[in-house]
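Q: What would this complex look like in 3D?
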Amino acid sequence: MKVGIACPYSWDVPGGVQVHIRDFTEELTSRGHKVSVLAPGDDDDDLPPYVTTVGRPVAIPYNGSVARVAFGPRIAARVRRWLVDGQFDVVHVHEPASLSLGLITTLWAEVPIVATSHSAMRRSRAMSAAQGILKSAFEKFTAHIAVSEEARRTVVQHLGVDAVLIPNGLFVDRFAVAPKEEWRSPDGTLSFLGRLDEPRKGLQVLLKAWSAVHDAFPKARLLVAGPGDIDGIRRGIDSRHRDAVEFLGAVSDEDKAAMLATSDIYVAPQTGGESFGIVLAEAMAAGAPVLASDLEAFRAVLDGGRLGALVPIGDASALADEAIALLGDPARRARYRAAASLGVRRYDWSRVADEVLAVYEMAIAVGSGGHTFKLPGLP
Amino acid sequence: MNWEWLFVTIVVLAALGVYLSWTAGRLDRRHARLEASRAVLDAELLRRSGSVLDLATAGLLDPATSVALADAASRARTAGEGAERYQAESDLTAVLTVVLDDPADLEPLRSDPAAEASLEDLAMACRRAAHARRFHNELVRGAVRLRRKAFVRWLRLAGYAPMPETVELDDTVPRGLASE
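A: Here is my prediction, written as structure tokens for the whole assembly.
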């Protein structure tokens, strides 16, 4: 199958959507499909061979924040070139509601279009004014996918169209790495992953809970991975508990997997803004029992608490209590680990890609919704 | 008589004609796609009941469960058209939900690789059928929106094609398969 994928964000900027497209492309290529990805950016960027760029995006205010988007006549011409050269059987547009390549691609593609919405958005005025235009573009989709229930609800509420749920994927086996002995500690190792100074990642909640956990288990330690103002945050921790917290900074994929594999509890204290808990699935794949705040996305990944522990959002004392209970109950952690290692298979690319390919097959069978304006009688 | 006015009228009428003919063509393509997506949905429902039959006849489940599944699946496959067919498919879902609801119940079964493969196959078939129905219904809703437009109705641009209807049936993926 020849597949064209329109990525809304620059390839050289790290982000969940880019990682998703990269891994999906890798999976499809290994199965013998031909995939070409279209993304904003310059030709001289260091890019994998399957990426075609259309030029630098510009920053404009959109939907209440700043969007970095690529548009204009030159870019439209390059999109059309890509569509013509690619001869795709199906075109897959990511994040179609963001003002970007997805929209341009949707306009010009004459083959069946599949769309995937990733993010959950709050309703804003700009969004609703642009609705009519987006809606008519969305009518060209033969199939619309959302990666989470929240993302699906966003699509339904904002644009009045339905979408099917297909979760994000990951390569489960790549997280089966050896733990790092130097990160182990006798009372147990907790870990956190996320931007340190982004309040919605919830590090402040975890650090508040940490004092109680460290009091109960003086030989426990906390690994904190993620970019941010490490010194400032370290100074904010009570001096008695500070040395047991180790900041790893931004970590490589290998170190991330090793950290998760070493963890006796992976803590996800996020307070919002998570559409899909891919990092929870990663922790599950690495064999870390998960303790997460009760966000809808996390609840879904943990199957309502069957695959990991859930605590009220933003509640530091509940988090501390549950972490202490878990550290003192190896049997329960083993149960979570066993159930999660089976449950996480659902998110393995081998299955998720099967499902997306099934959608492609259906979209091709139904045919394109292309109604590019043509004068009657002309080919 | 003013020549400019005549010219403007002709241009407006021509534009209107082109627009109407384009809309009629659009409706026509819509209906063709709807037929195709109905065929896809039918094929996916058949795949699902076929997959249930495979599981029921593989000798992996207890006899009572196997009989219930095989009965519901063959009823779905032999049901008539329209509402009768969809009711039979919903009934099949109801049986699947009872049998495959608890992921913990299925865990012992999954230790057998043949059973695991069979369950995985069924899980995918259930999801495919559910997706196909949503895609179809979305196309129906789009077509209905277009056909409700006043000028489409007045000018009968849709010809005599019946108003498309969404397919309503229960195709919930059983919990025991959903988390797989």
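A: To summarize the key features: Helices of chain B lie at 3-57, 63-78, 82-99, 103-110, 113-148, 150-154, 175-178. DSSP finds seven helices and no strands in chain B.
Q: Very helpful, thank you.
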